[in-house]
Design goal:
This protein is an alpha/beta fold. The protein has helices at 21-26, 34-42, 44-51, 61-75, 77-83, 103-110, 119-133, 136-142, 185-191, 194-209, 235-258; strands at residues 3-4, 17-18, 85-87, 116-118, 146-155, 158-168, 172-179, 211-212, 215-221, 228-232. 45% of the residues lie in helices and 19% in strands.
Length: 274
């Protein structure tokens, strides 16, 4: 069992592999990720349908903006402008960009050969980047470290993989989350099982470095006033989440053994209000 990190934490960033996102996701059939585990915890049948390719992951505008925001904030402007076509063509009559629903924009987007971001999307992403830059704690966490590093190891007798948003060698694991309203971020974190996700990251990294390092969430609003907040997950919360994860992994292994992935609603329930 990895030990809890002390105040003199030094994480060897050399344990992280550099790997494009598409290569990482291509190994989803060989390694368990935090998102797959969360799918199974929510509904085993959901997990299985995704494994069978019965549910397609559509690149919605919200997912595109979220991915672009991560690149802009964590990997920097150069990577952002390399991976995404930004802005679009300018209307010569108005001197302003064509709207994202115009024919001119559609023709430009088709010719780019990479994901495109409209002028409005670019402005939104820059507002979020500015919001993060206004929070000193967030800036300190992201001042030094490595983004999008990959680790593969065995955890709970199961091949696992994790792709970390950010690891600061002296602070720990950092994950960036966008949110509609920071006021409700803690409720959203519980509902979306961020604590289970982060406990998985902590444990997978711990298998390699033999330490359980601190983990942080940076939340940034995607609407005005674009507030940014930082949360460190409590040790007790992580310990409970780690126990939940390990029990879920054992149930997942058993599900594969007997080829049973229930919905969780196979029996009649009683609906009785007081």
């Amino acid at each position: 069992m990895p030990q809890t990190a002390n105040d003199n934490l030094v994480i060897d960033l050399g344990v992280l592999s550099a790997e494009p996102a598409h290569e990482y996701h291509a190994k989803a059939g060989e390694y368990l990720s935090s998102h797959q585990l969360l799918d199974f915890m929510a509904c085993p049948w959901l997990y299985r349908k995704k494994q069978l390719g019965l549910i397609e992951d559509h690149d919605s505008p919200a997912l595109l903006i979220g991915r672009a925001t991560h690149v802009r904030i964590l990997e920097g402007r150069d990577a952002y402008e390399t991976q995404f076509a930004i802005g679009g063509p300018i209307n010569p009559r108005t001197g302003k960009p064509f709207g994202s629903t115009t024919k001119a924009f559609a023709e430009w987007a088709e010719a780019q050969g990479r994901p495109v971001l409209s002028h409005d999307h670019v402005e939104l992403i820059e507002q979020m980047a500015s919001g993060v830059a206004m929070n000193d704690e967030a800036v300190d966490l992201l001042l030094y470290g490595r983004s999008e590093g990959v680790i593969r190891t065995t955890y709970c007798d199961t091949p696992c993989q994790a792709r970390f948003d950010w690891i600061h060698p002296h602070r720990g694991v950092v994950d960036l989350k966008t949110t509609a309203d920071l006021t409700w971020f803690e409720n959203d974190a519980k509902r979306r099982r961020y604590h289970n996700q982060m406990a998985f990251y902590q444990a997978v990294l711990g298998q390699v470095i033999d330490e359980l390092v601190p983990v942080y969430l940076i939340g940034i609003e995607k609407t005005e006033p674009f507030r940014c907040g930082v949360w460190r997950l409590g040790d007790n919360t992580l310990a409970i989440a780690r126990q939940e994860n390990e029990e879920a992994i054992r149930r997942l292994r058993r599900a594969w053994e007997i080829d049973a992935f229930p919905t969780g609603y196979e029996v009649i329930r009683i609906l009785d209000f007081p």
